[in-house]
Specification:
Blueprint (H helix, E strand, L loop, with lengths): L1 H18 L3 H14 L5 H13 L27 E3 L11 H14 L2 H6 L7 E5 L6 H11 L4 E5 H4 L4 H16 L4 E5 L15 H15 L6 E6 L7 H6 L2 E4 L5 H16 L2 H9 L8 H18 L3 H8 L7 H14 L4 H8 L3 H13 L1
Helix pairs in contact: 1-2, 2-3, 8-9, 11-12, 11-13, 12-15, 13-14, 15-16, 15-17
């Protein structure tokens, strides 16, 4: 019975790590299982050994330049950080102020001698705040890519343990490791650790952990780059804000950025027609994050493939005016009509805007 329980627990652990995409941890567990079950299930153990032999582990970008082993949890021996090659899956879209700030961070790295002559150093710590899906992780990838360094990601919520002393040690291992590496370190879910120390519900050990984290940020070398991200800035200890040299607030995209993203997502399928549809659909995604927009647009694309229908027919079904103001509806109706996708009558039926209003708006816009 104990053996069955062990198998169940080990299988669940393997599934959890596999779903997280941590290949090196999967290989470590399989090696462990091969030895553990060799006596009771020799055929399975042999098969696991053969699989490991045929699938050599991939070296990480860090290991190519340094022989230090990656930091691991003392008890489980599983890696504490995720290594990201900093390759962007899609072209990054940023607001003007965010883009300007990140470009300055990169340009500072090219002016280190000039900065040093004035007693200055390049920005070494940045705090990203904002709701989920607005591009914080993508921005960290972009910085790492421009700096030509791998991105180390430490999900602080994931390393939280019921034994806070153990959590503190794990975080120290990662921070000390990253300080000595040519990399960019992203501390994700910062609010899970760096909570307000005046919160009476938090115990003393966690408050001490915040103090340690603040000291580590202060001591971060100017040759490195430390980025922290949070979806809940209101939970952060006030002292955290002073520790970061740059604080950038990410917001849901403006309508122009929404159009840009939709156009990028649809261009492969629709060609230049994607410009028209980005104008039309942008109204439906106001207030949504980049990730929400990408997820919905890709659902339309997949649905069209599965049903073997034209993508435009799916996009037409997606048009909605339910949450629009009166002026937005009028603008939307005008955009629909001018796009040539629907007639003036159809634009009226979809939006409820009078045909005369649509005609007047379209004429006025044409003159402007």
């Amino acid at each position: 019975m104990n053996l069955i329980n062990d198998l169940t627990l080990d299988f669940v652990q393997l599934a959890r790590i596999g779903l997280a995409g941590r290949q090196q941890d999967i290989q470590l567990l399989l090696q462990r299982f091969s030895k553990k079950y060799n006596n009771d299930y020799p055929e399975m153990a042999f098969s696991l050994s053969e699989l490991l032999r045929e699938s050599p582990s991939k070296s990480t970008p860090l290991r190519k330049s340094n022989s230090l082993p990656l930091p691991v949890d003392i008890d489980s021996r599983l890696q504490l950080i995720k290594i990201d090659g900093a390759v962007l899956d899609n072209e990054i879209i940023l607001s003007k102020n965010i883009e300007e700030s990140l470009n300055q961070v990169i340009l500072e790295r090219d002016k280190i001698p000039s900065l040093a002559m004035k007693g200055l150093h390049p920005t070494k710590s940045i705090l990203f705040t904002g709701p989920p899906g607005v591009g914080k992780t993508m921005a960290a990838k972009w910085i790492a890519s421009k700096m030509e360094r791998p991105l180390l990601v430490l999900d602080l919520a994931a390393v939280m343990s019921s034994y806070l002393g153990k959590t503190g040690n794990n975080i120290r291992y990662v921070l000390e490791y990253a300080k000595n590496m040519d990399c960019v370190l992203l501390l994700d879910e910062l609010d899970s650790i760096a909570k307000r120390r005046d919160d009476s519900s938090e115990i003393g050990e966690l408050k001490r952990l915040v103090t340690v984290l603040l000291q580590e940020i202060d001591d971060w070398p100017s040759s490195g780059m430390l980025i922290a991200a949070t979806n809940h800035p209101d939970l952060l200890d006030p002292a955290v804000w002073r520790r970061f040299e740059m604080v950038l607030e990410f917001e849901n995209p403006s309508i122009d950025k929404i159009k840009e993203q939709i156009n990028n997502l649809l261009f492969q399928d629709l060609g230049t027609e994607s410009i028209t549809w980005s104008e039309i659909l942008s109204f439906n995604f106001l207030g949504k994050s980049f990730s929400e927009i990408e997820r919905q647009i890709n659902l339309y694309r997949k649905s069209a493939i599965i049903e073997n229908v034209n993508l435009v027919s799916k996009l037409e079904m997606a048009i909605s005016t339910k949450n629009m103001t009166k002026d937005d509806k009028a603008d939307f109706a005008c955009a629909l009509y001018k796009s040539g996708v629907v007639s003036q009558r159809k634009a009226h039926e979809i939006t409820g805007v009078a045909r005369e209003t649509i005609r007047k708006r379209a004429t006025a816009n044409k003159k402007n």
